[in-house]
Amino acid sequence: MMKASLGRWAVLATLAAPVLAAAAPAAAPAAPAPRAAAPAAAAAPRAAMERQEVRAQLSPRRFTTIAAEVGARISRISVTEGGSFRAGQTLISLDCSLQQAQREKAKAMLSAAEHTYNANKRLEELRSIGKVELEVSEAEVGKAKAELAYGAAVIGKCSIPAPFSGRVTEQKVREQQYVQAGQALLEIIDDSALELEFIVPSRWLAWLKPGHSFQVAIDETGKTYPAKVQRIGARVDPVSQSVKLSAAIDGKFPELIAGMSGRVALTPPAGK
After folding, report:
1. Are the C-beta atoms of 117 and 145 separated by less than 8 Å?
2. Nearest to 76 by CA among 92, 88, 61
3. Which of 32, 111, 195, 231 is 20 to 30 A from 156 in CA distance terms?
4. Calpha distance 234→249 (Å, rounded)
5. Edge-to-edge order in the sheet of strand 72-77
6. Contact predicate 67/185, CB 8 Å
7. pLDDT band at residue 272, thresholds of 50, 70 and 90?
8. Helices (DSSP H) in the chain: which residue ranges?
9. Cβ contacts of 163 within 8 Å, gap of 6 or more
10. Interval 184-199: pLDDT, tens
11. Alpha-carbon dihedral 135, 138, 144, 145, rounded to 10 degrees
């Protein structure tokens, strides 16, 4: 009985072998199917980038560091950290008593040189001195005038005016402190017009142009403000395929200050 069963299984296995062998090649063409997913995988990072949150930061249009141009003691700081100022207003006054004394010395030297030149000019007319002595005394007058002009220029550096209207963001020195020429004194910004800086996908350049209006939600105030694109970056980052944009807040909002950040509500139009 068992031998008969084994015989039947052997016959079935023999008959099924050709069928399995014929079916194996038919399944092979289905293997390349996963290649169709490659374009979708490549497009996924681009789509994800365009859906990501675009962050922007407020920055001043103009900012600079005020530094001393002469070595002297600070006698007065007119505007302290956080204070506002107008263009041309004196920010820092230096004690330039030494420079003023040197200028008075230059005045006295000029007066003496002019007297000598006038006397030599009269003597030259009387043929009492040679032409060389007269020219030397004339050169001394020019030298004294140059010294006086230099002293006046130095005195002019003792009062430091504001180059534009704005606010002081950092005070680096204190009154009665002696500073060297070139030493930083104040950090100032022009907060009359705040700019937004942010990065977007470079393919948006197909529809995003200067003057494009959008909204930005500032985190610190919890409000939304209108803005317009001002400038587009000069180059595209080839790795991230992104480009830097600069925009300006459209209007005056006293609550906004440099350094605040928020979310840009800038979405491509349909079909882009």
Report:
1. no
2. 92
3. 111
4. 21
5. 159-161, 90-95, 72-77, 178-179
6. yes
7. low
8. 2-27, 37-51, 97-125, 131-156
9. 64, 87
10. 999 999 988 889 999 9
11. -130
Structure confidence by residue, pLDDT tens digits, 117-151: 899 888 888 888 888 888 898 899 999 999 999 99
Mode of pairing for the β-strands spanning 55-67 and 261-265: antiparallel
Q: Which residue has the tokens 């530094």?
A: 67
Give the pLDDT confidence score for residue 180 in this predicted structure: 94
Nearest in space to 198 (alpha carbons), one of 207, 186, 208, 188: 208
Predicted model pTM: 0.66
Q: Kindly write down the DSSP assignment for every residue of 41-72, as one continuous string.
A: HHHHHHHHHHHSPPEEEEEEEEEEEEE-SS-E
For residues 193 and 190, what is the distance between their CA atoms, to the nearest angstrom? 7
Q: How far apart are CA 94 and CA 78, in angstroms?
A: 11
- At 60-104, the pLDDT tens digits run 989 999 999 999 999 999 998 999 999 999 999 999 998 899 999
User: What residues contact 229, with CB distance under 8 A and at least 6 apart?
Assistant: 208, 209, 210, 211, 212, 214, 245, 246, 247
Residues 57/220, Cβ–Cβ less than 8 Å: no
Mean pLDDT to the nearest integer, 225-240 = 92
**131-156 and 97-125 helices cross at what angle (nearest 10)?**
160
Long-range (24+ apart) CB contacts under 8 A made by 53-56 are 53/263, 54/198, 54/199, 54/200, 54/263, 54/264, 54/266, 55/198, 55/261, 55/262, 55/263, 55/264, 56/196, 56/197, 56/198, 56/216, 56/247, 56/261, 56/262, 56/263, 56/264
